[in-house]
Amino acid sequence: MLNATYEPINVCTVRRAAVLLLKEKAEVIEGGKGELHAEHTSIIRPLVIRLLSFVKLPRDRHRRKITRRAVFARDDWTCQYCGTGSGLTVDHVIPRSKGGSSDWTNIVACCAPCNRRKGDRLPAQANMHPARIPGPPSPNVFIQVASPRIPTAWQQWLPDLTAAPVPDAA
Q1: Under the GO molecular function aspect, what terms does this record hold (predicted)?
Q2: In the structure, what pLDDT confidence band is assigned to residue 93 with cuts at 50, 70 and 90?
Q3: CATH 1.10.30 in the chain, residue ranges
């Protein structure tokens, strides 16, 4: 779903999109194959819709709950210490026992062997530093988490999204 300004705001079900279309609160930007039929009407199957009126979103709408899948997607499904993509878990860069927080700036994707090797030590003590400084993810990460298989029709509306394949694990 796009805002009136064509900014992606969320992923919704086909049913929700159809309701918005029938209430004339949205328009179809990209249609899929086939139509949706009701007793007295038919509409094109929506893939991308745009709201007709602007919806003001809270500034901190991207300060969402941290989930493993969102951390993995933000970190491109790779361990931030060694670069592998298998056996991922999450790691607190500064361990909680050493005063580290559980927020976007302190959690990274990490493979199990690196997590065991780093243990309860600071990055300097373990000589293990994340490849990228952790921070809040881009808004598109949440769209990728909501729909791991990004349809081709969405690509042009998600310019920052790296179309990396998402494993079925997590």
Answers
A1: endonuclease activity
A2: very high
A3: 62-147
Q: What pLDDT score was predicted for residue 137?
A: 85
Q: With contact defined as beta carbons under 8 Å apart, do 137 and 162 qualify? A: no
Q: What is the DSSP string of 79-103?
A: -TTT---SSEEEEESS-GGGT--SS
Give me the DSSP letters along 113-165: HHHHHHTTS-HHHHT---SS---PPPHHHHHHHH-SS--GGGGGG-TT-----
* 3-state DSSP assignment of residue 37: strand
**pLDDT tens readout for residues 105-163:** 999 999 999 999 999 999 999 999 999 999 988 777 777 777 767 777 887 877 654 44
